[in-house]
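If you are new to this repository, start here. Below is one unmodified record pulled from the training split, so you can see the exact layout before writing a loader.
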Amino acid sequence: MERKLGVIVHWSGKGYGFLFNDEVNRRVFFHASQWNRATDPEVGEGATFALAPAPVQGKPDVAVNVTPTGTRVNTRTQPQTAVKTSIGGAE
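And here is the target side for that same chain:
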């Protein structure tokens, strides 16, 4: 199976999460049983994975053999806002 590189974008704390990969261009579900480390995944953590058919027919492929890369990515985005300044009441 071809390995892909992704970033964890959600971890439920209840045994499942989602990775994002630019090539697949969607969030990919993974189950905790596929996480190859003793500690829980963290949002922003890089990971490699392979895609496999979902266990439920009609659902998109899922991530299997999810292995952390040891890298972190900042997944928080800050909204860009314009700052208006005025001098003497004029804009």
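Two things worth knowing about this chain: The beta strands are 3-11, 16-21, 26-31, 45-52, 62-72. The CA atoms of residues 3 and 50 lie 5 Å apart.
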